[in-house]
Amino acid sequence: MAQSVFQVGGNFGSALGPLLAAIIIAPYGKGNVGWFSLAALLAIVVLLQVSKWYKLQQRASYGKVLKISPAKILTKNKIISTLAILMVLIFSKYFYLTSISSYYTFYLIHKFGVSVQSAQIHLFVFLFAVAAGTIIGGPLGDKIGRKYVIWGSILGVAPFTLALPYASLYWTGILTVFIGVILASAFSAILVYAQELIPGKVGMVSGLFFGFAFGMGGIGAAVLGYVADLTSIELVYQICAFLPLLGIFTALLPNLDDK
Q1: What is the pLDDT of residues 43-84, one digit of tens each?
Q2: Where is each Major facilitator superfamily (MFS) profile domain found (predicted)?
Q3: Is the CB of residue 147 less than 8 Å from the CB of residue 255?
């Protein structure tokens, strides 16, 4: 739950970006971007207070007995192979999310002839669905088990991604909402699962997975843009539609809880 709350703030901010671009930047010019820095300054102040609170919590919990993780019984090779599977799942998730977040507006404009503002609003709806999926994934993983959330999120979104390239504008909007909610519910579950896999290394695991996720997003944007230039934006979505099928590798993940 805590991991989802942390991530949903960033996702909600990303969702507001296209909406603000459609409402403020498009009609009034790029000079208004500077006003958004006020939100960043506010975030710095909040983060300073959170860091002080966290330091006090760390001191209060020093010396307490921690619950032994089921991952303790896994061999080193099993842990490494499990991390590799999680990386594959992160790859499939973020490559596909990049295809939407980076090129969805161009796809809508090119295929359906919508205006820039209309395309930005469609992107906002998708990113808002991503934020909603993020907050849903955490508590759901706590309740039914993180492995099952990962399984349902990555592989379960495949029917929607496979249908998207052939949908009308109306159904494209609906399908992307389902895709955003379902696919976004995975990351918090994957991250907490990895932290349980390597207990006591929260910082290292978080850095590894956040870094890999953002790296895949950046590489994905470049690769997909190159493919779109060589072929077409429609072909990019037809290819990316198969990425969630990599979720079948979730079956190889060991169970780390009793759910």
Answers
A1: 788 888 888 887 787 777 665 555 555 555 788 899 999 999
A2: 1-259
A3: yes
